[in-house]
């Protein structure tokens, strides 16, 4: 049985974009190129020069998701679920685990890294996060984080999430 994986493909593409965006993470520093933050020139960021806003992408616990998928497949094979019910169960499992990943990230980011979560798109696992550049980079040490993207990417993800309808196939 094959489940719809449009969200998974999106996360994979977002992860690839993260690699590219990390190459330009010097823009997060807001400095003059030598690591010093002078607060002058075109790179200075208003009064809050020591913080930046980025999109952080998280994914659900893949082990738990695989376990749930196996349970659903067993139920399908036993005849206890139809194909559409199995897909609905799988989507629900994905959504619940994604919400768990977001909640876990929010707790750790705010308490341990001094970050602020400004907004989130749970169906895409995307969060708009503000804080010091070092804290933003430290989010990469959180297991569920798959990438850091530009702030503008958050609105692109929101737009894409709005155009996708549950149950629609591509």
Automatic annotation (TrEMBL):
Residues 39-54 have a biased composition (Low complexity). It comes from the Archaea. Residues 27-54 are annotated as: Disordered. This is Uncharacterized protein.
């Amino acid at each position: 049985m094959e489940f719809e994986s449009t969200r998974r493909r999106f996360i994979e593409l977002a992860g690839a974009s993260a690699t590219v965006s990390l190459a330009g993470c010097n823009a997060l520093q807001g400095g003059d190129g030598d690591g010093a933050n002078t607060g002058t020139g075109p790179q200075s960021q208003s009064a809050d020069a020591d913080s930046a806003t980025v999109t952080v992408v998280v994914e659900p616990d893949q082990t738990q998701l695989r376990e749930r998928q196996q349970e659903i497949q067993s139920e399908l094979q036993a005849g206890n679920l139809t194909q559409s019910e199995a897909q609905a169960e799988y989507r629900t499992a994905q959504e619940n685990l994604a919400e768990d990943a977001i909640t876990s990230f929010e707790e750790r980011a705010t308490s341990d890294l001094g970050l602020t979560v400004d907004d989130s798109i749970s169906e895409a696992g995307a969060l708009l996060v503000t804080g010091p550049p070092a804290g933003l980079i430290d989010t990469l040490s959180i297991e569920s984080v798959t990438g850091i993207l530009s702030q503008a990417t958050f609105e692109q993800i929101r737009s894409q999430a709005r155009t996708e309808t549950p149950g629609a196939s591509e």
